[in-house]
Amino acid sequence: xxxxxxxxxxxxxxxxxxxxxxxxxxxxxxxxxxxxxxxxxxxxxxxxxxxxxxxxxxxxxxxxxxxxxxxxxxxxxxxxxxxxxxxxxxxxxxxxxxxxxxxxxxxxxxxxxxxxxxxxxxxxxxxxxxxxxxxxxxxxxxxxxxxxxxxxxxxxxxxxxxxxxxxxxxxxxxxxxxxxxxxxxxxxxxxxxxx
Length: 195
Fold this sequence. Notes:
With 195 residues, the chain is mainly β. The protein has a single domain (18-43, 72-185), classed as Roll (Pnp Oxidase, Chain A), CATH 2.30.110. Helices cover 10% and strands 43% of the residues. It is built from 2 helices and 11 strands, in the order αββββββαβββββ. It starts with 6 loop residues before the first helix and ends in a 10-residue tail after the last strand.
């Protein structure tokens, strides 16, 4: 069957696309300092992947679904004059492992992990509030790295940013505002589908 390549067909099947600069983030540090949307400068939505198990059979390779693994999540943060976010991140890492004493002031059960929610937003606001297209919650997240702050006397026409690397236990993914409830991805909470 031939495809109709008219512009009207395209317009009837394309709904405006999504924008990479429309997002929200609810990331609270253990000291109750938020990383608000104005400082969360750039990031990729978390990667969701399942490993593969190659099985060789008579000269061919069959790939069997393996175990789920989560890649570290990287976020670029826009630094600000009060340095509250940078200081809060440093304090979070220090509470996990102190620079001098080499011990933790907070344990796993007392709050050294968090829950960060990232939302990809629609460009069309209904009632003043844009719909959520995708929502990822990083469950049990903590910091593995705070990137260097690069100072340069020759730099101009630029604002300072730094990178943060986050590890987490699993993801709770909610497809969209209209799609209903959340689906836990990676935790042991699946039910058998109804036949």
